[in-house]
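Q: I'm writing up a methods section and want to include an example of the input and output format. Could you take the sequence below and give the corresponding predicted structure tokens, formatted cleanly so I can copy it straight into the document?
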Amino acid sequence: MRALLRGGLLAASLVIAAQSNATSIITDWNPVVIDCVLADAPTPTTSTHVLSCVFTAAYEAWSAYDAVACGPLIGNSLDGLGGAATRANKEEAISHAIYTTLEWFAPTKLADARAFMEQRGFTPGANTAPARLGRNVADRIATYRMTDSSNQMKKYRDISQYDPQPATDPAAWQPVVINGVAQKPLTPHWGNVIPFAMRSASQFRPAPPAPVDSQRWQDQIQQVIGMSANLTNEQKAIAEYWRPEVGTPPILLARNTELVSQMKAYGLDEDVKLFYAIHNAMLDAGISCWDAKYHYDYIRPITAIRNLGERLISAWGGPGLGTQTIPASSFQPYQPASNPTPPFPEYTSGHSTFSAAWAEIMKSFTGSDEYGGTVTLGALDFEGVTLDRPITLTWPTFTAAAEEAGMSRLYGGIHFMDANLAGQEAGRKVAQAVWEKVTACFEGTIRPSSVPCENLTAEYWNQETLEVFDAPLFTTIGGIGLAVDTPGNTFGYWQTGELDALPAGEYKMSVDLFALSGPKGTRLPELRLRVFTADNSQSAMAVAAQTDINQPYIPIEDLEAFVTKMEMPGEGKPGSSINVYWKSDGSKPFRIALDLLAFAPDIAGGVVASKMSYRRTSP
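A: Here is the clean output for your methods example:
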């Protein structure tokens, strides 16, 4: 039966594609990427994580060739390193970025990705400038996203220690027992993942769901039962289309994104931005939705209805049985019996959140809500029947598609109406936040926090000093970082420009360094690492233990040659790094500064900062 469904979908795809033969390296990669992601049997949340990484890598690689755009992690620090901004170089850099990201995040079916690379004339591991650029981008994104609280390195296993509430709680989600095995909750920790654009996972958390035994509670239960009893074939087709047999809602929307690109005849530059925006909206939509799910821990319709016991209801009776009068305890959603309801709490709806975010990005990117997508289904798989008359679903607008996706979960007996409405609202808000950020990326006005940390060079730092007698002299040490030589009676600092707010959470900010003693008879200056909000309403500081990190005095003009030859102090050695613990509320831009204080004539010397980094220590 599913083969007939796939035939209908393929026919629809060909009709849309026939309007334009336009493709790009992004749309060519899209089915390969999807197959690689599917090979690891992803959940809705984990699929957004991989797809976000893949298409962010593609965008970051592309942006290095664009005169205006920059990336959210790398900024424009790689501009010019991938060769001339030709289409061929862009395609090669993007392909190596995608392939290397798949190596990190979806390696099971990597042979298919390698075959695609070779088909396009690219060799994994090649030493060309575009290839090196693409791998560099992918490695940086992997470093960032492997430590974002997703627990990707351990196959996304839960790290929240979540346990379902006792069955005696009438409003709490309960795992359903299927063939003697209780469901295991999927990714309860996902609300802790660092979002792309949201200040925090709870930024768009909706109001609580209906209390037990309230009129709204009773009305929604009866609404789901009534829909089950009166399902039309079209409603069944809607329930089936939006619940793909293989994959997740974000993967289904990834396929639809490709079709929209073909309908609009987009090329490389449009596609790389579209897929980047869509998949980061999907990432944040999943984080927002899963935050609400496990915060409210709300009951699914299947459990709420079965808890009515032996009360007789009219509802769908199972494949081929139509509407039956059955005990409520036997209620079966319009879903396969082997997987009758998702293994996580109900409120809010993932389908609603994902699809509304997708539609909102599409409206913003295309400049219109007009869609015109259609799909034809030739069978109802959950019923086990072939249709005499295939059913065509039509979406005149992106909004209509999103609203249908949300309603599909009520037809399927999976959600209550409030979960749909709240999910749609949250999805729109998520997409608006994502659109604001990606627009800043496209316009080159993004201020990524990671850039001044990864690039300790004067280009990313303000060399500001407060002169007492002689100003400190700053210099860039090739391949190492920043250095300053401070005479006595001087205070100097490096300070970043204003950086975008980090997502809400607690962070550890670190800098590796060593101090250079001054001329004979002088004492070392004091070194400080500071983090502070741009409005100076919040600050944190750490002071280096200078006496533990003495090095011979080297005049500034000889410093670069000295540093490039010497062995830098390693992590963990006394005084080789200083750390600041910083709490972000997710909304305030901030700056980072390194201060060197020599407030006496007998204090002199310098410091070399070789590495700076930050990581979130708790949500």
